[in-house]
Amino acid sequence: MSDGGAGEGGGARPDGPRRVDEFLGEPTRDLGAWRWLWTEDVRFPVRSHRGLLGRLLVLFKRLLAPLVRTPQNDLWERQRVFNLIALEHLQELRDDALRARGAVEKVGWHEGRIEQLEAYWRQGLHEVMVHNDALFARLDQKTDRLRREVAELWGRLGALARVAPGSDGAALARAGEEHAYLRLEARHRGTEEEIRERLEVYLPHLAGGEVLDLGCGRGEFLALLRDAGVAARGVDSSAEMVEACRAKGLAAAEGDLFARLAAEAEGTLGAVVSFHVIEHLPPPRIDQLVKLAWRALRPGGVLILETPSPLSLVVAARNFWLDPTHQRPVHPELLRLLAEEAGFMDIQIVQLRAFPEASRLPEIDLAALAADQRPLADAVNRLRDRIDELLFGCQDYGLVGRKPPSR
Fold it and tell me: Which residue from 57, 162, 212, 305 puts its CA 20 to 30 A from 258's CA?
């Protein structure tokens, strides 16, 4: 092991030979000096500052020292070896401490660099966000401008379609109407994901066999059936809707719903479904659709019809009329009667899409009232429940009817 330096923390060995004087008075803290002392087995000189008496005492000690030292040589050697081992451990501890201090200094340096880099990163991120905000603001401006230009273009095309002679003008007008209806449905009915999630309630009612979707629209139910492994195809009078279905790999055809249903072979379909179509039809046509569906279904086949619920005054008096192509709400009991007269059995009316609590009438918290006020508040709450059910209830309902199985 190399010699340690002078001082408490160690350093370079002082020039010149070691001297015993380093250990007299205030002892040195140099581990190297102590290692020299015990390795060389250096003896401290016998000294005195008491004049003649002191010199006699020194002479006496020198004469006596061999007599005392010889019996203690073994003990002295053990003490010397122990001291050397202790010095080695002290040296190792000091070296470890120096290395640890160096590591701490390096960690501190790295932490400083990390903090500096984080500051640069925050500054850079702030600059990027400011730049992005500016880009998004410009993009929003351009999008608004394009939206206005498209709206103006559609308006001019619609006006031209109304005055253009011949079949080309009629086709242009129809294309404009279809585009406007798509925008209306996307705004008020919901996204494709939301509608698909709502339609999952009908999957347990299907009893097998091919499904025909009348008015398949954007194909939400067709996609749901495809993922469930159910054979299905759809028909819609909108060429744009049919094109959207085909773009998703769904089987859909453009055409008249009644003509397509009447053309189906009798007793072949597993289910006939139609979502938010019958409210566009007069009552005689609804009756015709139900009877044609009964004819096309095989024994045990299912008819599913969904429409806005007139049992909710909010729906019947307000939401229903957002769509200008709606003719009249269809009462669930009228639809049940038409299905029964056509021959369907096991008819169920499924209430769908309850209004969120935030839009319903508030309820009085009885626990927050005094005991004598609670009976009156409870009566008000009961009246509130009846009014709330009349105003809100559910937004849609579905009829599920089954053709009797063959005997």
Answer: 162
